[in-house]
Specification:
- The structure is a single chain.
- By secondary structure, this protein is α/β, with parallel strands linked by helices.
- The chain folds into 2 domains: 139 residues, Rossmann fold; 116 residues, no CATH class.
- It contains 9 helices and 9 strands.
- The strands form 2 sheets. It has a 5-stranded parallel sheet with strand order 2-3-1-4-5, sandwiched between helices.
- Helix 1 crosses helix 6, helix 2 runs parallel beside helix 3 and helix 4 packs across helix 5.
- It is globular.
Length: 315
């Protein structure tokens, strides 16, 4: 995830006003419809797949003091042309004094192909060729918009609920300051693509190899006690906090509104869960707004085995 980019009551940074016009584009099947629905729920006035020729008039006629506008467009939009669409919008924004931001919803090619195959929908650019040919062609067509995007969200490993969370973090109209999201994860299942900061805690002694702790999680007091007894835990956590404490206000000053901190271990059950919980608690005590989730636990706080290969994706 790439961002250009703010803690409630911080006072260190000026709260950034919501973009008056948000162009929502990206790869077909990547989750753009879910993103637009979330923006509508947040209070944006949303328009999807209007003919490109009508978008300039729509923007110019919108009330300056009205709700922010989100315009959805991709290769299915009549008259869509990546280069000219951005230039036209930028010109209108310049004349009206509004702010323009571009959100690009992306996904890796293999997952896009799987989604089209599972839903049995034709790809808009495939024609009589394969789905993958259509995806590759579309990626070339929209590459210019991706390069100019203010924010790129990769939904390859995100569920619809995850995408809504990320969208709310970045675009909530009542958002003031920097919102933080802390997540644990298992390295064997891959690094979270939306992570801004990643910390590896695999150097800590692994409770998995201790009789009686293997089937528990980092939420359990016995697992917490085991990790706390590791002589390297306290120095690490102290250094982690001393690193983050000055960094977060700097992100806020630079206008960043949402930051994801990921803590990883081998299986995503013990060490990463405990450290993520401790970090989230420390951040809340310091006055930051924090959400927390554990990507590779079936249910947060449930001390039960994790099904192998469990995953979810945007639909």
């Amino acid at each position: 995830m790439r961002t250009k980019g703010g803690r409630r009551g911080s006072g260190a940074a000026k709260s950034a006003a919501p973009a008056r016009v948000l162009l929502v584009t990206g790869m077909s099947g990547a989750g753009r419809s879910t993103a637009l629905k979330t923006l509508e729920d947040l209070g944006y006035e949303t328009f999807d797949n209007l003919p490109a020729s009508l978008v300039p008039a729509l923007v110019e006629s919108a009330a300056a003091d009205g709700p922010p506008i989100a315009v959805g467009a991709d290769t299915r939009t009549r008259g869509f042309a990546a280069e000219t669409m951005f230039e036209t919008l930028a010109d209108i924004i310049g004349r009206t004094g509004r702010e323009l931001a571009v959100l690009f919803i992306d996904c890796d090619d293999e997952r896009l192909e799987r989604r089209y195959t599972e839903t049995r929908r034709p790809h808009p650019l495939a024609g009589d060729r394969s789905i993958m040919d259509g995806i590759r062609r579309e990626r070339q067509v929209v590459s210019a918009l991706r390069d100019r995007a203010d924010l790129v969200i990769d939904t390859s490993a995100l569920s619809a609920a995850d995408l809504k969370r990320v969208m709310t973090g970045y675009f909530a109209l009542d958002s003031r300051g920097l919102r933080l999201f802390v997540t644990s994860f298992a390295y064997r299942n891959g690094i979270p693509r939306d992570a801004d900061l990643i910390f590896d805690v695999r150097f800590l002694d692994n409770p998995y190899y201790v009789d009686g702790l293997r089937t528990l999680t980092g939420h359990h007091p016995a697992v917490a006690a085991h990790i706390q007894r590791d002589v390297d835990f306290a120095p690490f956590f102290d250094r982690l906090w001393r690193l983050l404490r000055p960094l977060l206000p700097r992100y806020e000053i630079r206008g960043k509104t949402y930051l994801t901190i990921a803590i990883g271990c081998t299986g995503g059950r013990h060490r990463s869960v405990y450290v993520a919980e401790r970090l989230a608690s420390r951040l809340r005590d310091a006055g930051w707004r924090v959400e927390i989730a554990h990507r590779d636990l079936p249910t947060p706080g449930l001390d039960a085995p994790i099904p192998a290969g469990a995953s979810a994706a945007v639909v």
